[in-house]
């Protein structure tokens, strides 16, 4: 299940992923606070950091960059994907209730929310394009280069974990990942915890955008198409679309 959410705004921060995470959280709270607490908290004081069953990607239509801000001449489009029906119903209902969302000094005004039909996968070998970049980390928490020897191993590791979290069963077959036209993208993220630990304003996330071929079990590919690929999917990474 996919949602396409369009917002009018004058400006948005260059590191906008956290703004969009806040929008998603606020929508879930508006829809059902108990559901939100179950998803994001173990108890009142402890955050539930377990990965969630969704991914998202944003597209800014017609903008100009002014230092740390994008001045938006048209609109911001937020695409969200999840195979989790309960999550998507709560999110959809909450987004409908939020006609205006404020994050720090930034204001977003809802234009429309549409349900988008997913494509059906019929084969075990699919060509995808990224809607948001794919981020892969190693066991030492370092962002990996796509040419690293262990890149595909770590991609399989996180895909297995994401599928286990969602359906209780990991990968049925190892994934084969073949980059076709992938380019490095460095994404700036302004995360409160990172700033307080390092005294640095931004975390720079090395990731990759473009097209790639993936081969594996059809059900695994179908679920990863909906859940996203790689790390930080719930923070605006790893959303993919079928192109062949």
Automatic annotation (TrEMBL):
UniProt KW keywords: Antiviral defense
Keyword Acetylation listed: no
InterPro entries: Cas_Cas6_C (IPR049435), CRISPR-assoc_prot_Cas6 (IPR010156), CRISPR-assoc_prot_Cas6_N_sf (IPR045747)
GO-annotated biological processes: defense response to virus
UniProt KW Ligase keyword: no
Residue span, CRISPR associated protein Cas6 C-terminal domain: 117-242
Pfam families for this protein: Cas_Cas6_C (PF01881)
Superkingdom assignment: Bacteria
One example GO MF annotation: hydrolase activity, acting on ester bonds
NCBIfam families in the cross-refs: cas_cas6
PANTHER family: CRISPR-ASSOCIATED ENDORIBONUCLEASE CAS6, CRISPR-ASSOCIATED ENDORIBONUCLEASE CAS6 1
The protein's name: CRISPR-associated endoribonuclease Cas6
